[in-house]
Amino acid sequence: MNRKPKKGGAEVAFRPKTIIEARYDLDRRQNDILDILLGIVGEGNDTEENTRYEINIADVKHLYNLQDESNAYSYLQKAVKKFEGLGFRLKEDEGTDIYYPWFSKIKYQKKRGDEGKSKIVLDLHPEVKQMIMEAKQGAYYRIEYPLNLTKKYSKRLYYLLKEHETFNNGVYQITFEELRKMMKIPESYANGNVKREILEKPHEEINGNTDIAFEYELIQEKLPSGQMGLGAVRFKIKRVKKNRTVVEIVENIDKNGGVVIASDEEQEVIDVFGCSLKEAKDILRTANANNRTHEQLFEVLKRTLRQPSVENKVGYVLTILKNGYNEPTIFSGRRGTGWNNNDLGSYRQINMAEIEEQILANV
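Above: the chain sequence. Below: its structure as tokens.
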């Protein structure tokens, strides 16, 4: 093992530079699982040849603020299941990249009547294990800090900044395009929305909730088109003292004081749209009441995120799901006067800027 021995027990993780900077898209639950696993890898008597790891519910449930601890296995199982069939991609050189599955095998073992003895067994690909054990660069961090971050891009940025916090006096610069690719942001997303999701929101969440704080500067450069545009981001990272906290993984508490955990469908809306559980419930309720399909719903969510001038994004989505889109007339090319309640297909031919004012007026 080439990297220095990990200290701090299983609650401290080491995430290699190769994984931090790889191109993948994991939601916050999946990153939680990866953090827990990376806390175990290399711990104690772990050998380089070993590739099998157990996440024992009794050992990790204290990381979550659950009033009913029997929910811990269900929560972790749902997160791990979302890894099935997923992997990450590394660029080896200019002409070669490599795809690795996150796990070569996953085994779920639920102990009925005693949730605390339930466990999930994960097998790493041998080369992924080797990559972790032999990495000389990466980030050491207490897993409680990323667990406290609710946005997936906040987590990704946290790992990246932790990797660079001790180098060059905490000053780190990366091209905006490289940052977009690393976080798997679709090319169709406008820079304004991307900046808000991967810089502004993480800035609000990481600062004050973790062991680091950062500021960033947007650097304008001459783009290949000849125009000036956003070329790079320069970060200034500093380490701060932070009291240890326990993350609240749920979004709400019911009127009786019980924990309310998002369903898979609600969590999917939360992960994609970055809203609260209550807002996710409202969105799904409206979509179902108006017979909107899963594809229609997520088309609306993703396209709404690309509208930088829309402030009330939840209201915007609810209005569209309820009323449909205002269709252009065939002959004049102008907008029609009625809402299309049955078919969202016309949305693809409509300029969102043209209908934005009318939609916002109905919010």
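Residues 191-206 form the longest helix (16 residues).
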